[in-house]
Design brief:
Order of helices and strands: HHEHEHHHHEHEEEEEE
Family: Belongs to the peptidase C1 family.
Shape: globular
Number of domains: 1
Number of strands: 9
CATH architecture: Alpha-Beta Complex
Helix content: 25-40%
EC number: 3.4.22.1
Strand content: 15-25%
GO molecular function, one term: cysteine-type endopeptidase activity
CATH topology: Cathepsin B, Chain A
Enzyme class: hydrolase
Number of helices: 8
Keywords: Hydrolase, Signal
């Protein structure tokens, strides 16, 4: 037992370096603020453990916003009735399922067939093409959502916070029949296609690399400043804008409301920061 506890303490310490917080906050070039999250619900150690170990390319990409795109856009303001809760994936590396279910939930609402939040647990327990709490592939997740679909969160709420994954259920939690909703077509978009799709149809699944300093993000427009690349992560793209002269993408995370800007964050736009602009995923909805 002592060795188990010691191993976890060492792992937690390796996942968070308080000197990074000081370094970022003293950096005059920094466009964001860092925070020491020790003592909150957010656990850097659990995040590091659950990350996909795939490292995304960060080569600069040709990107210019469409002339028709507004200077800023926020789905939370455009469609407040479809704002999703900020979830906490905790000890489950199921970010791929949170990003897939979240983007479809809001896209269904925008299309006129809102069903409430959809179930990431349905994907985690049932999508045999992915690896449940041990990671998933965005293209395979969208294809599963097209062919098999997913049910509502009220039918199958998230129960895998500990990393334990129950078998694919045959009934809703209350014993009723499971109804699943599907993408009509899947989407894989280049960065120059993203704003039009986001503005007209709703949020998208986005991936990016997690560096050590991102674990300390508190507010502002994130740019990598300190630390090593720890792996990649999936989130929901909700919009874009500009803050203090820096253009950004707006995204929803699944690390609880204790992290970031109450669960949301901004990341620099136009430079493929941390690989964020390498590809976006989702689908179209027909009600």
């Amino acid at each position: 037992m002592f060795l188990f506890i010691l191993a976890n303490l060492i792992h937690a310490a390796a996942s968070f370096d308080p000197s990074i917080v000081d370094s970022v906050n003293k950096n005059r070039r920094a466009t964001w603020k860092a925070r020491d999250y020790r003592g909150t619900r957010f656990s850097p150690a659990k995040v590091v453990k659950s990350l996909d170990k795939t490292i995304l390319p960060e080569d600069p990409l040709d990107f210019m916003a469409p002339l028709s795109a507004p200077s800023s856009y926020d789905i939370r303001e455009a469609y407040p009735d479809y704002v999703l809760p900020i979830y906490d994936q905790d000890d489950c590396g199921g970010c791929w399922a949170f990003a897939t279910s979240g983007s479809m939930s809001i896209r269904r609402g925008i299309a006129g067939c809102w069903s409430g939040p959809l179930s990431m647990q349905d994907l985690i327990s049932c999508d045999i093409t992915n690896s449940a709490c041990r990671g998933g592939n965005p293209a395979r997740a969208q294809l599963w959502a097209k062919n098999k679909g997913m049910t509502t969160y009220s039918c199958l709420p998230f129960v895998s916070a500990s990393g334990r994954v129950p078998t694919c259920p045959t009934k809703c939690r209350n014993g009723s029949e499971i109804e699943r909703f599907k993408w009509d077509k899947t989407l894989t978009l280049r960065v120059d296609q993203v704003q039009e799709s986001l503005f007209n149809e709703g949020p998208l699944y986005a991936r990016f690399n997690i560096y050590e300093d991102f674990l300390s993000y508190s507010s502002g427009v994130y740019q990598h400043l300190e630390g090593d690349n720890l792996g990649s992560h999936a989130v929901i793209l909700l919009g874009w804008g500009e803050e203090n002269g820096v253009k950004y993408w707006l995204l929803q995370n699944s690390w609880s409301e204790d992290w970031g800007e109450q669960g949301y964050f901004k990341i620099k736009m136009g430079t493929n920061e941390a690989g964020i602009e390498g590809g976006f995923y989702g689908g179209t909805v027909v009600c």
